[in-house]
Amino acid sequence: MSTRKILLAEDDDRDSELTITALREHKLTNEIDRVADGEELLEYLRCEGQYTDREDQLPVVLLLDLKMPKIGGIEILRILKNDEKLKQIPIVVLTSSQEDTDLKECYELNVNAYVVKPVDFHHLIEAVKEIGCFWGMYNRPPYIDD
Amino acid sequence: MNNQIPHESVNKATKHVAILFFIMPLIGSLFCIALAIAVFIGWYTHNLALIQILPDLVPMQYNTALGFLLIGAGLLISLLKLPKIGGIIGFLAAVLGLLTLIEYIFALDLHIDQLFMNHYITVETQYPGRMAPNTALCFVLSGLSLFWVCIKSSIGKRIYIVTTLNCIVAVLGAISFFGYLMDFSTLIRWGAMTNMAWHTAFGFLVWGISAQLAITFFSIKHNLDLRLMQPMIAFFLSMFVFILLWQIVIFNESKGIRLTMKNVSDEISKEFQDRLKTEFTVLQRLSSRWVINRGTKHESWMVDVNNYLTDHKSIYSIGWINTKGDLTWNVRNNSNNIPGHSLWPDEKNLLSNEAKRNKTYIVSKQFSYNKNNYFVAYFPIRGKDYFDGYVAVLYNFENLSSSVISNVIFSEYNIQILSNNKIIYSPPAHRATSLKKYWSVVSNFKKYGKQWTIIVWPSWELLQDNRSWASFCILFCGLIFSLIVALLFKIKQDLSNEKNLLRSSNNDLESFSYSISHDLRSPLRHIVGFIDLLKKEENANLADNSKRYLNIISESASRMSALIDGILMLSRAGRKEMSKTFFPLDELISEVLTDLSPEYHERQIEWSINELPTIYADRSSFKLVMQNLLSNAIKFTRLKDPAKIMVSCSTSGNYNKICISDNGAGFKSEYTNKIFTLFHRLHKESEYEGTGIGLANVERIVRRHHGKVWAESELGQGATFFVLIPSNNNEVIL
């Protein structure tokens, strides 16, 4: 079973760096891919555009930020949900938003988890580590061919 | 009028409703045009049914029909999206009305009344061919309404004015129309000038309503707030009802007066006839005695006649017309001071054979001399084979009439007596003749070969005595009531607008705080995160001081984050919709304590939680209150061992009073009010950490529950916080 990748969708470079550093703290075997906006995310998942040559393999988990340019997180969730193939991807929403509306909408769109990014870096590392560990190593994704 | 927010319900107005508001005025305007054409046809083809409906009713004048053609066409064209042309046509109608009004007001004749058509209807009108003043007014207003739609001013103002004009026209039409339905006399005769014809009234009612529906359609199309019209329409509907009531009351009052006057008129005519009958009977004795005595001496004649004259002041003179037809032995009544002259008309024909056969008295035509009216009664001196001329009695009409009319009647009423349509008695010039046209009651009788007419109308004093305050009160109260109703509608609108403004402002705040929760936190996270990475990477190379600096930076960023969280929570608590429910307070407290357990799990705290009742509040925000207060209690008892925290609740009447007391640090009582101020702290961050937001939040939430929160404390001796909230739905503002 080839180790699938962890896909991080995050527009902010610094947040992205922090998250990836935190993930790497745990020395996960999964590779981490990052996309910077909604459009790029869809191209990645569909192996289109700049990702035409990518191996068609779904990530083991998608860490999704809600506030992204071009296509926002909530809209991405809707698109993924309506796609027969892509709706299988486990999604952890990793966002700064504490708004109840966002929370409610995300769960209605079948996310697997909703995590609010803590300001405190230590807490961030802990949270991300545990997420990465669980989804990357322990949880089995729903892809049958694995 | 300044804030025109497209009203939600307008946007939801279905297509069907909008079409209805287009079709109905269309039909209305076509009706007006058809009405005008029908009346034109009536005038040209002399078809009276079209013009008058019923023979005694006032006809619709030609100019009125012309006016209807103009306003009907104007409305139609405006509906068909050419409001400017409609406005010009309306302007023409207004000019027509205005010219007629000028004719009335300044008593001019501008020759427009019969400009197009000669007035040949026989119903008596004061000015043939001229429309009623209220009809003219309605044309001015309706024409103006069509014209005003095109005027360059704010749409709101235009709607107000046009609605007002349409309503006035509709109400004026409706009042006349209802007047016709109820009774023909009261409502439509403004000073007994030409009445508004029945179909004219109906036409204005239809036009007014159609024009208003057209404006409504216009508003719907432009997504305007339909409620702008409500105050005006409410006002006019209300005024219409009150004017109707007022008219009914006046009608009843005038009915009473008219009845009385009819009685007076009948009484006078009876009195008049009786008097003359009596007098003639008495006077006949003169001639009878002459016949019996076959003549009389001059001296006895003088005595008799003088007696008569003394008793009958209305007789001017009594004389004898001899067989030659000459007047002799004429004795004038000295008690009157009419200058003397021989007044006898030439009545030689009295000596004709035919006349000689007359046994009864003959009454002559009246004649006037020196502005006085007289008539003569001839009593034939005639017996079997005997004729000796006539006793001729000259009567003065004025004197006769005044003697018939009692003083009482004279003071209260105005009487006019006509003989063969010639006025023989009239009230003095200063008496109110303006009332005559509207109020006069007429009695006719035929006597002595003449047609007598007695006209009675009331004096001003009588009218005022009979006018109760009821009618005036109704009108006045109606006006006040209508104004209040209109004002209420306006206030309701304004409140609704305010609410919408607040709601949209609230929505703005929502998106603002949403932004904050994302955008402000990110940089903070980066500061903290990268400082940490820096510390990790450079741990070996950093001096202690440098590490300390980095820690300070990191902690400051964390503190800023806590502040932002606090402010966000504060604003959310203020904005959120409250949904109050009944729930057990002890459950809430357990939840809060569970949530707070990380803060005290290493400490010894003696909790005394008394029996707590069910309270009525918004659960989620009240949880925040309890969370804040308990968190404070936990925090400020940190230095006490054992820490004691007590929670209790008492219910009295309509309130629940919750107490949270601790044996912690306490504070000076003079700071009791200050602690609820935003950002106000009583300690340094190093003593007890905190943002200074918590209690401000508590105060805000409790205030939104219409409750009160306060504290009692002494420095070093703990603090007790009290929260007072209503225990049920009957909200009382404290």
Features:
heterodimer, A: 146 residues, alpha/beta, five-stranded parallel β-sheet, 5 helices, 14% strand, globular, B: 734 residues, alpha+beta, six-stranded antiparallel β-sheet, five-stranded mixed β-sheet, disordered N terminus
Helices and strands, with pairings:
The complex is a heterodimer of chains A (146) and B (734).
Chain A: E1 6-9, H1 13-25, E2 32-35, H2 38-46, E3 61-64, H3 73-81, E4 91-95, H4 100-108, E5 113-116, H5 121-138
Parallel strand pairs in A: 1-2, 1-3, 3-4, 4-5
Chain B: H1 8-11, H2 15-45, H3 48-52, H4 62-79, H5 83-105, H6 133-148, H7 155-182, H8 198-221, H9 230-293, H10 298-311, E1 315-321, E2 327-332, H11 353-356, E3 362-363, E4 367-369, E5 372-383, E6 386-396, H12 397-404, H13 407-412, E7 413-419, E8 422-425, H14 436-439, E9 441-447, E10 450-458, H15 460-466, H16 469-519, H17 521-538, H18 544-575, E11 580-584, H19 585-600, E12 605-609, E13 614-618, H20 619-636, E14 643-652, E15 655-662, H21 694-704, E16 708-713, E17 719-726
Parallel strand pairs in B: 12-14
Antiparallel strand pairs in B: 1-2, 1-6, 3-5, 4-5, 5-6, 7-8, 7-10, 9-10, 11-13, 14-15, 15-17, 16-17
Helix pairs in contact in B: 2-4, 2-8, 4-5, 4-6, 4-8, 5-6, 6-7, 6-8, 7-8, 7-9, 9-16, 16-18, 17-18, 18-21, 19-20, 20-21
Write up what this structure looks like.
The complex is a heterodimer of chains A (146) and B (734). Chain A has 146 residues and is α/β, with parallel strands linked by helices. Chain A has helices at residues 13-25, 38-46, 73-81, 100-108, 121-138; strands at residues 6-9, 32-35, 61-64, 91-95, 113-116. Chain A has a 5-stranded parallel sheet, sandwiched between helices. Chain B has 21 helices and 17 strands. The model of chain B is unreliable at 1-11 and 186-194 (pLDDT under 50). In chain B, strands 1, 2, 3, 4, 5 and 6 form a 6-stranded antiparallel sheet that branches. Chain A binds chain B through residues 12, 14-15, 18, 21, 67, 95-99, 117-122, 124, and chain B through 514, 517-518, 521-522, 524-526, 528-533, 557-558, 561, 568.
